[in-house]
Write a structure and sequence with these properties.
Elements: H1 16-26, H2 45-51, H3 53-57, H4 75-87, E1 91-95, H5 98-110, E2 116-120, H6 125-134, E3 137-141, E4 145-146, E5 151-152, H7 157-166, E6 172-176, E7 183-184, H8 187-196, E8 200-204, E9 228-231, H9 233-236, E10 244-248, H10 256-265, H11 273-309, E11 315-317, E12 329-330, E13 334-338, H12 346-357, E14 363-364, E15 368-372, H13 379-396, H14 420-425, E16 428-432, E17 445-448, E18 453-455, H15 463-474, E19 478-480, E20 489-493
Parallel strand pairs: 2-3, 2-6, 6-8, 8-9
Antiparallel strand pairs: 1-10, 4-5, 7-12, 9-10, 11-13, 13-15, 14-15, 16-20, 17-18, 17-19
Helix pairs in contact: 1-4, 1-11, 4-11, 5-6, 5-10, 7-8, 11-13, 12-13
Bound molecules: pyridoxal-5'-phosphate.
The site of pyridoxal-5'-phosphate has 11 residues, from α5.
């Protein structure tokens, strides 16, 4: 066992919530309570066949005696305590609306109405949405951008220090680590810089729920001094989609009661017991067997990397980026393949893999293909990928040709004209994008790739941003968040705050 919190007290091999749910689900209780499927008999037969009777029997409502009601600690409370112990946190919460719910709660708790915070510019959309809910005022800090590969790394401590200097009284600094590409920021230094300014450091570690559970993966942000950390358990560890955890540090700057209050606000009164049980089980698996499972996955990933590197025109990027600004460590569970040398784009290679082998990578960009491995990745599929990939490249490569990557506008650090909340909730009108220049955007628009928002609610639309987004659309990129994906029209504030 190698829990990030390192507390081998014998309780980690238990899964109290899962066990209590199983006891209730299979002992033949008479259900005069919700949900209406009554443990299966009331369900549509086709659905029952598809997901199985067990899933229905275990789909039990909140406030059930012996599960989350009864003498404290209830099995539910115990399960969250065990998660906190495994992650080395003071307190952990199970989330049933993903890391998205965690970001909303963090904004409500730490960035309430009118409160200044520092925010990584390419934070997940749920952060901006959280600020729309809370009314906090972000000062943006740009991530480091790798022009060669066309992808963003983390933020540097220097950039955060500068943002804090521009934002006196900032209550918190929100950063993302690791990135979608598995690159971790220098969290220890970021924590020092934030704490020197009296601000809490919050790390969106959605892509690193396994960090700290093996010597070969980056350390967890909690161990490096972050005050709150979000882990999207479903992304890498084996819990069900939509389940995640939020952790608050043992000796940090954040009062867990504030977080608990905010979580209640963004939580259903009928959280899925299946999702909660999956978190309890995933925590057990990670804490008890994580080190061994990760060893197997990391070794298989290394073999696959070597095989991919041997394919003409391809190389795996990750470790050699470490040391570049915004890149302090890399996650071996992310295989980022630079395919530029094949003359094909990542999109083309992804399409060819899908057509021939039914292989579905997590992400393709112009320059890369990204594979996400699970903590307990099936090794056979990885070994097979090396073969299928090599065959595909041999078939589709056309060395020589290479399209230039479109860099985002240099000044993606616009200043907000109004708070994101006021722009999102304000009276809007739809205008042609050319007529929108100079107006205040009500939308967040990011091109994928590279995933850095070009426009956020509350920012003025500039001619440069319009030109950039137009070019992105023309190059085949998708615009996330845009009300009009063709980018012919956009929602702007009807009345300009400067004119009031
Ligand atoms: C950095 C980051 N944070 C938060 C989220 C939201 O996670 P979830 O899908 O679990 O709600 C994502 C989703 O991709 C993400 O990439």
């Amino acid at each position: 066992m190698a829990a990030a919190g390192d507390v081998p007290d014998g309780r980690q091999p238990t899964a109290p919530y899962l066990d209590a749910l199983v006891a209730y689900g299979f002992r033949g209780v008479t259900r005069f309570h919700v949900p209406g499927h009554k443990g299966g008999p009331g369900a549509d037969p086709g659905l029952l066949h598809a997901i199985g009777e067990s899933a229905f029997r275990l789909d039990v409502p909140q406030d059930t005696a012996g599960i989350d009601v009864g003498p404290s600690p209830t099995p539910y409370e115990l399960a969250e305590q065990l998660a906190a112990e495994a992650y080395g946190a003071r307190r952990s919460w199970f989330l049933t609306n993903g890391a998205t719910q965690g970001n909303h709660a963090l904004c409500l708790a730490l960035a309430p109405l009118g409160t200044a915070v520092v925010l990584q510019r390419n934070a997940h959309a749920s952060m901006i949405d959280g600020l729309v809910l809370s009314g906090g005022l972000p000062a943006f800090v740009s991530p480091e951008y790798d022009r060669e590969l066309g992808l963003a790394h983390g933020v540097t401590p220097e950039a955060v220090a500068a943002a804090l200097a521009r934002t006196p009284g900032a209550a918190a600094v929100f950063v993302v680590s690791p990135t979608y590409y598995g690159i971790a920021a220098d969290v220890a230094e970021l924590a020092r810089v934030a704490h020197d300014a009296g601000a809490a450091l919050v790390v969106d570690q959605a892509w690193g729920p396994h960090f700290g559970f093996h010597g070969g993966v980056p350390q967890s942000a909690l161990a490096l001094g972050a005050d709150a950390v979000l882990t999207s358990t479903h992304k890498i560890v084996g819990s069900l989609a939509q389940s995640a955890m939020l952790h608050v540090a043992r000796d940090g700057l954040i009062d867990p009661d504030r977080i608990a209050r905010a979580i209640r606000l963004v939580r259903s009164t009928s959280p899925s017991s299946l999702l909660l049980a999956s978190l309890d089980g995933a925590r057990r698996q990670l804490a008890v067997h994580g080190e061994a499972l990760l060893s197997e996955t990391i070794a298989a990933a290394a073999r696959t990397r070597t095989a991919i590197d041997a394919v003409p025109g391809c190389s795996v990027v990750g470790e050699e980026l470490v040391g570049a600004p915004g890149a302090a460590a890399s996650d071996p569970l992310r295989i980022v393949i630079d395919v530029r040398g094949t003359g094909c784009s990542g999109y083309e290679v992804a399409a060819a893999l899908k057509a021939a082998y039914d292989i579905h990578p997590e992400l393709a960009t112009q320059a890369t293909l990204v594979l996400v491995l699970g903590a307990a990745q099936p090794v056979g599929a990885l070994e097979r990928f090396a073969h299928d990939f090599a065959e595909t490249i041999a078939r589709v490569a056309r060395p020589g040709a290479r399209e230039a990557i479109l860099p985002p506008p240099a000044e993606l650090q616009q200043q907000l004209a109004v708070a994101p909340r006021d722009a999102f909730l304000g009276a809007a009108e739809v205008v042609e994008v050319d007529a929108a220049v100079g107006r205040v955007s009500c939308e967040a628009i990011a091109g994928y790739p590279p995933g850095i928002p070009a426009l956020l609610p509350g920012e003025r639309v500039t001619a440069e941003v319009v030109a950039y987004l137009r070019e992105l659309v023309a190059s085949g990129a998708r615009l996330h968040g845009a009300s009009d994906p063709t980018f012919e029209t956009i929602n702007v504030l009807r009345s300009d705050p400067a004119a009031r």
